[in-house]
Amino acid sequence: MLQLKDPRPLDQLPDQWHAGNWELPEVTGDQILASLSRQGKMADWVAQAERSLLIHHICQVLEIEVSESELQRAGDAFRRSHGLESTVKTQAWLTQHQMSLEDWAASLYENLLTQKLQVALFGSSVDQHYLNHRHDYDRVALSQILVQEQALAEALRHQLVQDASAFCQLALEHSMRSDRFQTGGYLGVHYLKTLQPEVHDAIQQGQTGEILGPFHINHRYSLIKIEKKFPTHLSPDLRTEILENLLEEWLVELKNSKLKN
């Protein structure tokens, strides 16, 4: 049976540990694959490999290519953004990440290829997609009180209707979240589209400072306070995010359609 014991201090380890006559074992490719399998990460790794091969194949069919000058510019930009001004620093970074120069170039090439595919397939669709789904990209800062009992949630809501400023204190006293002592119920900033439909709709119609709920979610009751709303605009970063999302959705649909046939 597994027993809990305090770890042995370094000065109490066997003499062989201090003798310096042992080495870290070399990790083989088979051992890496076995470790990924044991940790349940093999499926993700295979999915990434399949995605990479699929993107390369589609780009080949569509005759989408990356030129040497584009690859060089991407490499220079990467080095600047990561503070790798010298070849020594760049080589140290490659060593740290266990990559060869060829591996790094292949990674840059694939990123550029993916970006070109995104633009080729969906570049003309971004504006319309944004107009149709703009509220999904609105962000909101939220706080939450999460309790087990509906009666308690209703009682807390009644208190908060009288004094919304008591939200933080009530979260510290009642919320089930493990981080409640540090955050006072603050959940951070979230995209509206990531929230559950009932919460999404209530927040979309609500106002800053408003207390919403209780919502019955996963056998618990949640009170939500809208701390701040962040209406969005179609910035370059958001345009990039939309392109990425559209491509990923399309790749999933493409793969599923092939599996059905």
Automatic annotation (TrEMBL):
EC number(s) for this protein?
5.2.1.8
> What's a single GO MF annotation on this record?
peptidyl-prolyl cis-trans isomerase activity
Top-level taxon of origin: Bacteria
What PROSITE patterns does the annotation carry?
A: PPIC_PPIASE_2
Q: Which residues form a coiled coil?
A: none
**Sorted alphabetically, which keywords does the UniProt record give?**
Isomerase, Rotamase, Signal
* SUPFAM superfamilies linked to this entry: FKBP-like (SSF54534)
Catalyses which reaction?
Answer: [protein]-peptidylproline (omega=180) = [protein]-peptidylproline (omega=0)
Q: Which residues form the PpiC domain?
A: 137-228
- Pfam families xref list: Rotamase
Q: What is this protein called?
A: peptidylprolyl isomerase
Organism, by scientific name, is Lyngbya confervoides BDU141951
**Organism ancestry:** Bacteria, Bacillati, Cyanobacteriota, Cyanophyceae, Oscillatoriophycideae
